[in-house]
Write a structure and sequence with these properties.
Elements: E1 4-9, E2 13-18, E3 25-31, E4 38-44, H1 48-61, H2 63-77, H3 90-106, H4 117-139, H5 141-144, H6 146-151, H7 159-166, H8 168-184, H9 196-220, H10 223-238, H11 250-253, H12 260-272, H13 282-306, H14 310-313
Antiparallel strand pairs: 1-2, 2-3, 3-4
Helix pairs in contact: 2-7, 3-4, 4-7, 4-8, 4-9, 4-10, 4-12, 9-12, 9-13
Length: about 325
Amino acid sequence: MGMCLQASLAGRFYIRLIAKTTPICYQLHYQDADMRHLQYYWITTGNPMLTLIQQFRNIARNRSMIFALALRELGSKYAGTLGGFLWAFAQPLATIVIFYFVFVIGFRAQGPGTTPYILWFVCGLVPWFYFAETLPAMTSTITSNGHLVKKTVFPTEILPLVHLAAGLVPHVIFLLILTGMMAFFKIPFFLDRIFVIYYLICSCAFLVGLGWMLSAFQVFYRDISQGLTIVINMWFWITPIVWSQDIMPAQYQGLMFYNPVYYIVEGYRGMLIYNTVVWPSVGATAYFWGITALVFFVGNYVFRRLKPEFADVM
């Protein structure tokens, strides 16, 4: 026989406790201020795999909230500025121009084979900017939304995903710009090129694990976001984005295999800018997903373990 206990919270939230078996599941129902939308999710203790499945259910059921918060994030980020959303492209475009003059005009850098350097560089920069702009935002999302964490019963695990979704908008626009450059340089189009979406999924999976883990640690150690800026700068230069790995000594080129971002960057290039589509090797794919799965599960575990302490620490 099961037991059901329901408690009302301020007329807007209520929790239903179901104690049929172990683990105990808490079903939380949330209705927003205008009383139109009903969201609910489960918090489960006990079996880790069952908890992870319930967390995916929480995310799926709160997808409308994620998209609404992502739109609000995009709107508020540039609210009150004259340039508005155009500022989202100012830094990337300035970076492209600077590196073009330094490496193409100054050092006369060449892309691999017959591929124009500027096209090769921009194609690597597109996934990098999505990664480098989204990860710091995900890291600070819990501390910057303390009003949600402290004052309401809120599914905080969706907060990093808000920035993941918000970052997709400028990323897609940059992909369209890259498509225009491909047309300008007469890169042939193949239907297989649409599988670049696979590498976008790779980016999202890797970012979610890192985002959960770093955002949880950031609540307790505010130095995380400061140190992350240094790590991202170093990560940019050790990833072949502005330089080709061919210039490395042969005995060190294999080290790129262990860089998960290199797999994504080269995947974008292999799918989009070469005359033939270049598919990843089985070994590189297996390694990437092994690392991503480890980061994902560790990040999820860390977030769930530290989540009950968020409100007290903040």
